[in-house]
Structure formats: structure tokens, C-alpha cells
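in:
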């Protein structure tokens, strides 16, 4: 039996506090063992140190949100969000000093990021309440308690916290039934105005629903439906809408999330012409296959799969509609350009690649040169022709990286006079390589000498 010798509630004393502590302990489990077993040792150590530092500064410290949820679900998540009752920025700075880490602060929001020498990042925030001047506005923030801080969050499963102060290290704080909802696989908002305050939560609901295979509570679903009807989502800024959309499209199975967005009638806030159809659904399946192949081939790790999904989602819209949708979402110019190019060139290019007899490798190369991998993957997903697929995969895996062995310096060494002719010769060498007409540096030299004579 646990013997309670310490009083953890400052506003109670004597017997009352002991009783309160016993009651609370029997209700709130301690996760000290879970933390120890499920986290890498340096992380557990960091959490202990954060708690000890908070003790020295006379602050209360908690790790909160997605980290706690995933800890209970036994899913790996090392995104630490620490909330401090009191001056979070001072805490972050002190932690930075102790651990020789860099600290970036946002005074206005009372938040900071601690960046450790090995690159590991830790978010620190002061406990705060948020109020919304008008629906969809960015919230006004004020310092407050952990309880208030957790109340402003999206779903009960994200409202749990773990105490870090040494005396109660590991204690689970669950004011809003997060653990019950986690067990029942339920997504539930904390109050009925939640989606009015912040309609991006609708996208977050879809994201968590699909990721964890959870369901929306009856009230939460009804609240989403009525928020969607109010058209409040039209007032949401493009940046915020895009951020949530990208987060959705970066999940394991964006196809299901897109279908769910259509079901809940939120695609129209991106563009009125967007809707789910069997054609879209089968295109999305082929996008999945194309991406899976791309990952297996271990190609460019910087390829943005969300861009491919976005192209697929907009496939079939007119160029104008695509431009409008991208503007609505404030898609950054670089990504917008990729999406527009992929959209407008896909059908034409697929047609040209499909011609009989099939293009030679050098022709395929010139048709596709300059297209980003995202657009090429969209092409791969839109075509049913095996010949076109073969050309696209050859281009993605090899053609686009082809270079002749010789360069300008070699041409000079061979005795050719520098000039515009160099570009022509090198281009010709590349074509010859692609078409398998030359296979080695010495064959290239022979070809160059023959060209020089002509
Ligand atoms: P993920 O695993 O996708 O990162 P997460 O729950 O950690 O999920 P974040 O977007 O990283 O989500 O946000 C961290 C925490 O901040 C959430 O757990 C939630 O408590 C809170 N939060 C984030 N966005 C919102 C929002 N729009 N409204 C209310 N609370 C939010
Ligand atoms: Mg997170």
C-alpha cells in the first residue's frame, strides 16, 4: 500500500490534503514505469531534469498533448511539448543554459523551442488560455493554469498531461476524460463551440480518426456537420487551411482522409468543384501504388508526396479552377508551380508517350526533362499503358540522372575550339548514351571525333 507522506496541494493542509492526495492518486495513475520502458533513456533523463529544474525555479512542469496520447497508445512519438505554469520562457532559457542548447523564443505567445546540440528539439510553452475575438480569429492568449491550458485543446485524447516535478513525477493528469476516450477509441471535443472557434479542428478530427481508426462521438460529428453548414470555413485563412490539409495528406493513408473530407462536405471549401467520385478514388489508389514503388526504389527523399495527392485531388479541374484552389490555399509559389505544371501537362504528355511505335529513350527524355518527380508520379498514376509506365519509371530511376562521360574540358583536350558547338555535341552524346548507341567513354570519344570531322 502506498504511504502518502507528502502534501501536493498547496491550498489544503493536514488531513484534508492527505485525503485529497490519496483520492487523486487512486484516480490518476503514475506513468513512471511506462515512461522508463517505452522511451529512450536520454528522453526519460531529460524529462526528469526538466522536472528538477522546474523545482529549483519553483514552477510546475508538464509534458502534454500528442506525446502523452501516443505514450498511452504505445506509439513512438518523441515530439515533446512541455507546459510550464508560470514563466515558460525563463524556464526554456534556464534549460538551454544547463544543457548548452540554443533557445528560440516567441515572447508574444509565451513559447520557446530548445534546440539541443544534437538537433533534438523541445517545445516549451507557458500554460495559457485562449479567447477568440471572433470565430476563426487567431486566439488572444493569457497566462493561466494547466487545467485551462488543456481545456483550449482540440480533443479529449489530446488533453492529457504528465507531471514532471520530482515529487509527483509521472503522474497522469486527465481532467477531461482523455483516457476513457482513448480506451473507447473516441474523438470528442471539449465544448460545443470548439469547431466554431477553430474550424481547422474539423481537418484534425479527420486526421486522427483515420490515423488511429477512432470514431467521432455522436455530438462531435453533429457539431462538425453544423459547423460545415455555417460556411465558417470560408473565413479560415489559406495558410491555416493548407497547413492542416498538408498534415492530412502526409498521413499514412491520405486516400481515406480525402474520401472522408468529401463525405463531410469540406472539400468545397478548397474549391466548389471538388468532390469525390469513383474516378478520383481509383486515381488515388494508383497514386498510392506509384508512391509505394517510388519509396521502394529509394529515389529522391525530398519528393513531397502531399503534392502528388494535391494534384490527384485537383485532377480534371480546369486550369483556372486549379489556379483558384491554389490561391485559396495560399500554396507557396514553388509548390503551386509544380501542381499547375503537373496538372496542365499530364494529359498531353501521357498521350505523346503513348504513341506507336513508342518514343526512343532520348525522345522520352526530352518530353519529360524538367518535370519534377511529383508531376512524373502523377503521370504514372494517371496512365494505364504499360509502355508509358515503363518510360516514366525509366526516366525517374535512370534517364534523368544520365550524363555523358565527357565534358567541355574533354572536348577542349580533344582539340575542339570552344563555342556553341560544345552544347550541341554534349546534347548529342547524351542522346546517344540514352539510346544505347555508345556505352563508354572511349566510344564517346570516337563519336566526338567523327562529329568533329563532319
Ligand atoms: P501529431 O502526432 O500529428 O503531431 P499532435 O496531437 O501532437 O499530433 P500537434 O499539431 O503537434 O498535434 O499539436 C500539439 C497539441 O496541440 C495537440 O495535441 C493539441 O493538444 C494541441 N492543438 C494543436 N492544434 C490545435 C487546434 N487547432 N486546436 C486545439 N488544440 C490544438
Ligand atoms: Mg505533435
Amino acid at each position: 500500500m502506498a504511504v502518502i507522506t507528502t502534501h501536493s496541494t498547496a491550498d489544503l493542509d493536514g488531513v484534508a490534503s492527505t485525503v485529497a492526495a490519496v483520492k487523486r492518486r487512486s484516480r490518476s495513475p503514475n506513468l513512471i514505469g511506462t515512461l522508463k520502458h517505452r522511451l529512450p533513456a536520454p528522453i526519460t533523463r531529460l524529462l526528469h531534469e526538466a522536472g528538477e529544474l522546474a523545482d529549483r525555479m519553483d514552477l510546475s512542469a508538464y509534458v502534454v498533448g500528442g506525446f502523452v496520447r501516443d505514450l498511452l497508445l504505445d506509439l513512438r512519438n518523441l515530439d515533446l511539448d512541455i507546459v510550464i505554469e508560470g514563466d515558460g520562457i525563463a524556464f526554456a532559457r534556464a534549460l538551454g543554459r544547463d544543457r548548452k542548447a540554443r533557445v528560440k523564443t516567441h515572447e508574444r505567445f509565451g513559447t520557446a523551442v530548445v534546440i539541443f546540440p544534437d538537433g533534438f528539439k523541445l517545445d516549451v510553452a507557458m500554460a495559457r488560455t485562449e479567447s477568440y475575438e471572433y470565430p476563426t480569429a487567431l486566439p488572444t492568449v493569457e497566462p493561466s493554469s494547466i487545467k485551462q491550458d488543456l481545456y483550449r485543446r482540440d480533443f479529449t485524447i489530446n488533453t492529457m498531461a504528465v507531471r514532471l516535478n520530482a515529487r509527483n513525477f509521472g503522474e497522469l493528469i486527465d481532467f477531461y476524460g482523455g483516457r476513457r476516450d482513448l480506451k473507447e477509441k473516441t474523438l470528442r471535443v471539449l465544448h460545443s463551440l470548439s469547431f466554431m472557434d477553430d474550424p481547422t479542428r474539423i481537418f484534425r478530427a479527420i486526421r486522427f480518426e483515420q490515423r488511429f481508426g477512432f470514431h467521432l462521438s455522436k455530438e462531435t460529428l453533429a457539431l462538425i456537420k453544423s459547423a460545415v453548414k455555417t460556411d465558417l470555413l470560408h473565413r479560415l485563412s489559406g495558410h491555416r487551411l493548407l497547413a492542416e490539409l498538408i498534415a492530412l495528406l502526409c498521413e499514412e493513408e491520405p486516400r481515406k482522409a480525402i474520401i472522408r473530407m468529401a463525405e463531410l462536405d469540406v472539400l468545397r471549401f478548397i474549391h466548389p468543384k471538388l468532390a469525390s467520385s469513383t474516378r478520383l478514388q481509383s486515381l488515388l489508389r494508383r497514386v498510392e501504388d506509384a508512391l509505394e514503388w517510388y519509396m521502394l526504389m529509394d529515389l529522391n527523399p525530398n519528393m513531397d508526396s502531399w503534392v502528388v495527392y494535391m494534384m490527384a485531388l485537383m485532377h480534371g479541374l480546369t486550369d483556372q479552377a486549379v489556379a483558384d484552389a491554389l490561391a485559396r490555399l495560399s500554396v507557396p509559389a514553388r509548390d503551386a508551380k509544380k501542381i499547375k505544371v503537373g496538372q496542365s501537362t499530364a494529359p498531353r504528355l501521357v498521350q505523346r508517350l503513348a504513341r506507336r511505335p513508342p518514343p526512343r529513350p532520348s525522345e522520352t527524355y526530352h518530353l519529360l526533362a524538367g518535370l519534377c518527380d511529383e508531376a512524373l508520379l502523377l503521370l504514372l498514376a494517371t496512365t494505364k499503358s504499360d509502355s508509358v509506365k515503363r518510360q516514366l519509371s525509366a526516366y525517374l530511376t535512370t534517364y534523368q540522372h544520365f550524363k555523358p562521360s565527357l565534358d567541355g574540358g574533354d572536348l577542349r583536350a580533344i582539340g575542339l575550339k570552344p563555342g556553341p558547338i560544345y552544347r550541341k555535341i554534349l546534347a548529342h552524346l547524351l542522346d546517344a548514351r540514352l539510346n544505347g548507341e555508345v556505352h563508354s567513354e572511349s566510344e564517346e570519344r570516337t563519336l566526338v571525333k567523327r562529329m568533329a570531322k563532319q
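note: The chain is about 55% helix and 10% strand.
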